[in-house]
Amino acid sequence: MIEGAVYSGDKVAVRYYQPVPKYVQIGGKEYVCDVRWGVSLLLVDESEVPALLAAEGGCCGGKRKIFLLCNQEAFNVWSTGDR
């Protein structure tokens, strides 16, 4: 279990910082963030979380962390449309 993480079954909810369907490849797996109600989310195995949290991106040469552990409120919005 990852401290502070929200789980959906055995998957960890990881949020992309923009509400767009971002493509990402982790090891041999490919994912596209699922956007619902303005929240862009991936449900991944625990082993993939460190690579996502370390990923950097940004425009115009800027670098910043682009994934974070999803909090319960954002997960509720994503899954039900309600906080």
Walk me through the structure.
Helix content is 18%, strand content 39%. A hairpin with a 2-residue loop joins strand 5 (34-36) and strand 6 (39-44). The strands form 3 sheets. Strands 1, 2, 5, 6 and 9 form a 5-stranded antiparallel beta sheet that branches. A two-stranded antiparallel sheet has the order 3-4. A two-stranded antiparallel ribbon has the order 7-8. The model has no long low-confidence stretch (mean pLDDT 93). It is of the alpha+beta class. It has 2 helices and 9 strands; from the N terminus they run E-E-E-E-E-E-H-E-E-E-H.
Could you give the topology of this structure?
Elements: E1 7-8, E2 11-16, E3 23-26, E4 29-32, E5 34-36, E6 39-44, H1 49-54, E7 56-57, E8 64-65, E9 67-69, H2 72-80
Antiparallel strand pairs: 1-2, 2-6, 2-9, 3-4, 5-6, 7-8
